[in-house]
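Re: your question from the hallway

Yes, I did run it. Sequences:
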Amino acid sequence: MTPRVGVITFPGTLDDVDAARAVRYADAVPVPLWHADADLKGVEAVVVPGGFSYGDYLRAGAIAAQAPVMRSVIEAAHGGLPVLGICNGFQVLCEAGLLPGALLRNAGLKFVCRDQWLKAENTSSAWTSRYEPGAEILIPLKNAEGRYVAADSVLDELEGEGRVLFRYIGSAGDDAPPNPNGSLHDIAGICSADGRIAGLMPHPEHAVDPLTGPTDDGLGFFLSIVDFLEGAKVR
Amino acid sequence: MNTQVSIVVDPVEPDTVERARATAGQDQPYRELGLKDDEYLRIREILGRRPTAAELAMYSVMWSEHCSYKSSKVHLAYFGETTTDEMRSHMLAGIGENAGVVDIGDGWAVTFKVESHNHPSYVEPYQGAATGVGGIVRDILAMGARPVAVMDQLRFGPADAPDSQRVVPGIVSGVGGYGNSLGLPNIGGEVVFDESYAGNPLVNAGCIGVLRAADMYTAHASGAGNKVILYGSRTGLDGIGGVSVLASDTFAGDGNAGAGSNARRKLPSVQVGDPFAEKVLIECTLEVFAKDLVVGIQDLGGAGLSCATSELASAGDGGMHIVLDLVPLRAENMSPAEILSSESQERMCAVVTPDKVDAFLEVCAKWEVQADVIGEVTDSGRLVITHHGQVVVDVPPRTVAHDGPVYHRPIQRPTGQDALQANTSDILPRPAPAELGELVLKMVASPNLCSRAWVTDQYDRYVRGNTVLAQPADAGIVRVSEDSFRGLAMSTDCNGRYTMLDPYTGAQLALAEAYRNVITTGATPTAVTDCLNFGSPEDPAVMWQLSEAIHGIADGCAVLGIPVTGGNVSLYNQTGATAILPTPVIGVLGVIDDVRRRIVPGIGHDDGETLILLGETRDELDGSEWANLIHGHLGGLPPKVDLEAERLLGEILLAGSRDGMVSAAHDLSEGGLAQAAVEMCLTGETGARLVLPAGADPFVALFSESSARVLVAVPRTEELRFTEMCTMRRQPWARVGVVDADNPDGKFLDIQDVARISLADLRTAWQGTLPAIFGPAILGSADL
Amino acid sequence: MARVAVDVVIKSEILDPQGKAILAALSRTGHPGVSSVRQGKHFDLEVDDTVSDGDLEEIAAQLLANAVIETWTVTRLPAETTGEGR
Amino acid sequence: MARVAVDVVIKSEILDPQGKAILAALSRTGHPGVSSVRQGKHFDLEVDDTVSDGDLEEIAAQLLANAVIETWTVTRLPAETTGEGR
Ligand SMILES: Nc1ncnc2c1ncn2[C@@H]1O[C@H](COP(=O)(O)OP(=O)(O)O)[C@@H](O)[C@H]1O
Ligand SMILES: [Mg+2]
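Structure:
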């Protein structure tokens, strides 16, 4: 029985097609979830994709966090449903209180799209088990509000519990600084204490095929969750 | 203006058709609305009375240069005359439709277009550029296509001019802010800096859409009784600055309305874009297409409802009745003229059969898109518009949409043209061989040749996962769909300096470069669009440039065997009396049957690959970037154009791509061989050794801008086969170097006997320029 | 040292997409009593006594607001207020 | 109908690059007298009488501001003010 992974579409969501494709590439079944529909259709995991939900005019993810589908996701997540928020999805999870901290305007004040090198820090989460500790991957980064901030106490907790999934370590082919947006501790992604709820600013779903992305380094996230759901991986 | 105040003061008596009959003599502010005396008289003739305020608003905006092409029409006709049936064979829709549509096989069709939004972008850079993108995307959507990619062609004053600090970042973030929010990958464009654009930047935006050939829609309203549905954003006072004279005029003397209208007088004709509303509009529209719920559809762009209703009606059964009271408004007590002229963004107009109206409204409700039936199609042959139960418009729609004035403007080759062409670059001192290395660094760092990453890094090129090539490639390539390897390639180009020296040849050189950019990726050019940016049509010299350019493009397309499927004309681009450089931006669309065989621009595939220069290099530096940067000189004649040679190049590269004989390729344009070599090295992060042809003047070899040239990297194993093919087909070629991938002492571009420059130095020079002027796009924690 | 608040809002006749999106969200989340929302920018400035009201006006017009589409108000705040809720 | 202004500012310990950029621009353009700029958001709401201060607080806390990073003030405005400079 192949795992069924929900992919949420809010009005203004853009990367749902990409997320669904990535789920397919990992031999799971993508199940479209609609913002106004609280029904999770019995999916075993959920991806909250990138985009500009409801325009993102107020605060990225702020309005989406209150959508009917998110109320169900929040409840299910507290019950252990694995959830991955990518870019806008990460912002939504923070606004929804499923992950600590917040994502603010890039330090450079501009939308940035580039191929970004990341270093794997936590490879035991439900979404990152396929990566080797310390592995360096190259996947697209594209956002205007990707600067991760949180109170020092929260940062200490994240570091202490090893909940930083990936850190920024540099970009491909230019002299720009390794940290593209001023995120504290160079944080690109984090997870919940139980490793099931993950948020990542860069876009693994855009790096599942070298034909259309810089690499296929992003596939690991989707293969990891399939392993997790199939219980293939003893954690 | 002395209006018959006694009749017009009362705001409760709007300017109805009835009243227009009763007050035949009333003065109307048609001049303020840009109508000439004879044009106004023609309107009175058509109607057999004076137009109402609302009718005057419609005619004046629809008969404007922008909507009616009154100065360019007679010249654009030449495109039709020169397009043969064979060229037309793949064309499903051409000039006249919202956008051209071409059949690309497998049941797929493609629609594409480039449009200008120059003046609004100077007034309000961010919003002007943003709404420019929004407008072209709705054009493509209106053909029944899913928009799949956008492009932008930007031209600014000197990068270091003070006003560029306001204009450049604003326009770039506007293009990005809107396009990124729509989820459309940006796959290419241009950035050019030249004094002539200082007071009049050019913001052209392009969009490509994909549809099943069978599903094409057109803007027509047929079937009496069918409903007209306006959907999308509400209608507000956006962009009606000009029309407000009608309000103030009609309501002259009335205290409140007077005050209100004076306020409106000051309305900036600026519109604010709502990309979220447009994204939802796209998905909503694609769903009503998929469910086959529409008969005809039209986007609302310039001229808003005036344009949509009159064009839909005249393209259909010729009659339509609209009830303005049903139009959802964003502002209070808008006059009929204001409602009809509003340029509020993110709106579409659909014609729907009565039985499908509910289904249509349901889809809109699902996407939370406002939708209202505002009228219906009739067979009256007239466009009748009512407001508060009174008829405010009653016109034959064709006379508004299509029977606008046509001008045969005087044409005059500028007196200074001969002098300009006589002033060649021969007089310019050329660098000594020892100075060439330094010149290479200086050239790659110049605003016109440096890396565009500062711009393109602000654009999403990945969204939807079909982008196979984007910057810094010669042409962008997207897959038509995920379950197909068929792809579309597109490039747009124009060198206004060449066009200034010789509009006919310059336009052909633009066509040639766009064509060359497409073939360089391994794709086959299929169709052409243009965006003709020129100065004032009232200047005979400008009209000469325009007609020369059009002839150049059309004749060029005939040689290349690809049709012009549509375009856009933007006139009055000038500061005071000085026009911009004539800028006919040419877009060439290509098709590639299998995107996996695309040719990339960066070397590094394999060490020791041979670098081969295809094409002939002549001493052609008039109008070159070298003459511009080093000497601030513009004169002489542009490089020779040879479209047959470009065509042959296309065949060579196609074969090279099909049979895996070419591992990388980059076309030569501004900056010549030096620029191309540097870009291939930096893009591939791989060094190379150049050996200039024996006996060649190294300066000319490196910096001449002769056309029909491409630099290719060929795997050793394929070299013989490739060069024999070239020789056999009479394609001029020369071995000019090798890929130097694993040089122990590092990565260099080593130009034998000239200079050896490290890629690090080249990268710093190439990438440093725009961030230094406009501020780094990326600030690391260090900078905080 | 004086504290100055500058509020910048989009001109009333010009579309405010942000306000529109927020209003829609409010009605979805059960706040029908709100009939209009306009989103603008709020700036907290600290200035010394060399900065005249004229200077402030210029700063607002030149840098903080975009006169083409926005209007603004400049308010000098009594020293002690912090402009922050909690 | 009542008019309400909600001002939202980023907590002082969190970096505000917009404010920094504006401050830099101010000193470049000859306004040394300005020593600090913080950029926040300003909301103009129109609400009917069913909307209590409690509701407004909730609206601000739940939607308009994010307590993790921002603080806010809610001010009911006297009916006539327009909140716009000119
Ligand atoms: N305004 C822009 N928007 C998007 N892409 C751009 C823009 N300007 C330049 N580019 C891209 O940067 C690359 C280099 O541009 P350019 O040197 O003008 O290409 P070429 O000389 O081959 O036409 C190309 O891929 C081009 O499409
Ligand atoms: Mg090129």
